[in-house]
Amino acid sequence: MKKVIYLIGVLIAWGGIAQDKQAIKYAKTIKVDDLRGHLQILASDEYEGRETGTKGQKMAAEYIANYFESLGLEAPVDNTYFQKFNLTSSEISTSYFRKGEEKKMVFEDFIYFSRAETSGEEYINIVIADESDSNIKSYKDAYVAYRVQGFTRMQDRIEKAKEAGAKGFIEIIEPDDAFSSTLSRFSSFMQRPGLGLDGRDNEGSKMVLLGRETISWIFEKEYDQLNAGDKAQVIFNADYLDKPTETENVLGFLRGSEKPEEVVVITAHYDHIGITNGEINNGADDDGSGTVTVLELAQAFTNAAEKGKGPKRSILFMTVTGEEKGLLGSRYYTDFNPIFPLENTVANLNIDMVGRVDEKHSDNPNYIYLIGSDKLSQELHDLSENVNTTYTNLELDYTYNDENDPNRFYYRSDHYNFAKNNIPIIFYFNGVHPDYHKPTDTIEKINFDKMEKIARLIFHTGWEIANREERIKADEDKVENVAGN
Question: Same domain for 275 and 324?
Fold first, then answer.
């Protein structure tokens, strides 16, 4: 016995984690067949792609709530599992640029998207930017037009233009075939109603994508003759049809045995993009895979609790809506109605796409991209590493954790709404694949063996966070950086 105690002490001193037989026992209740069974339902045609606010999304919400109830999880929202809230559904009725009687029409000559207020026809000033933004002082109150070779880090450009006082933002996509491809690929999607938590506001960005022909028409000169600093004025109009849309997050709560006021939140978004061009986007990987992983984690932890081995801290299992519309469900929870105080939220483990294998790892499916584990808490990162070494031995790939990674995935899933509130997070992600946001993201392509291993990694990570003596804390020198984003 003394040798065992000594060994445990050594492991702790090294920063390692001693194996917990109870954790291993309940992790093994996460099984391929259960994951497949849930996903066969949620990613079926019957659920019509689970687009936020639609019948399919609400069917999925009912399925998840019923499963939480079957596990005996507490219903934490006024004795229900549903956190309901309203969104504003906005559809462009008309938008155009006008010079005299001649018009360039939205979705024919350009793409427009915005949450900003509109007020009918107005004269707008457009200024051509250069790569170094040397004429940045001229951006104030103007639409800033950047020349773009295909897609670039649009968000960086938007933020730079907004900081300079710009009213709007234009991407000139070149060459011509690149713009034609963009128009063809995104017009039908952008014509669908958008959703937002708030009404329109004057702070919203106005964004336009167009090609060389339209910008030349606006400036009345050949495209090759345009120079940085050139200015033009044109009439612009955008009108919307708005209506309220109700949706809901689904929450199940497992009360901790010793520190119930401290909460670990485990999330995945259960919405997807619905039906496009008459085809159902089932979203088996995005994010059916994450959603059913949350269900299996809930089952494993409740099994432990039923045997008197429940976590010391509470765990909130939350599947959120509206992620595909701009992280809306998680934002509603953190910014408007956190059911449990954010200051008592210990960590967020977010699962978004864990069922596929990307090209980089085609010869080794036993991997997962981890994003954000060290952004706020080195302690959480080290715990995650030690858990993997102790229990699962997956390849933990931090490629997308790089602050300079152009994909900016850290800002693109629901964990970010917790991170911006200084709550340590880990985002689990398998990377993109050719079926991303397409009708071909189907259950037949899911690697359930891989999913099982990742789910067990997340279970062990959640188990350690929930049962350790001291709560995970954010590093003081990192909180300020993230809070400033």
Answer: yes
Burial class (CB in 10 A: 0-12, 13-18, 19+), 29: middle
Q: In this structure, is residue 355 part of a structural domain?
A: yes
Q: Is the pLDDT of residue 321 over 60?
A: yes
Query: In degrees rounded to 5, what are phi and psi of residue 183?
Result: -60, -45
Pairing mode of beta strands 425-429, 110-114: unpaired
| Nearest partner of 261 among 415, 68, 466, judged by Cα | 466
Report if residue 215 sits inside a domain: yes
Cross-strand pairs, 209: 111, 171
389 in any annotated domain: yes
Tell how strand 345-351 and strand 231-254 pair up. unpaired
Q: Is the pLDDT of residue 293 over 90?
A: yes
Q: What are phi and psi of 145, to 5 degrees?
A: -105, 120
> Which of 267, 291, 330 minimizes the C-alpha distance to 85?
330
Which residue, 243, 265, 280, sits at the end of a domain? 243
Does some domain include residue 303?
A: yes
- Which domain, by its residues, includes 270? 17-74+255-483
Helices (H), 307-432: 328-331, 378-387, 415-419
Instruction: Identify the H or E element spanning 235.
Output: strand 231-254
Q: Which CATH number characterizes residue 270's domain?
A: 3.40.630.10
CB 367 within 8 A of CB 454: no
Mean pLDDT of the chain: 91
pTM (predicted TM-score): 0.85
Q: How many whole angstroms separate alpha carbon 67 and alpha carbon 252?
A: 9
> Dmax of the chain from CA atoms?
91
Q: How far is CA 293 from the centre of its chain?
A: 16
Are 361 and 467 part of one and the same domain? yes
User: Which pLDDT score is estimated for 204?
Assistant: 58
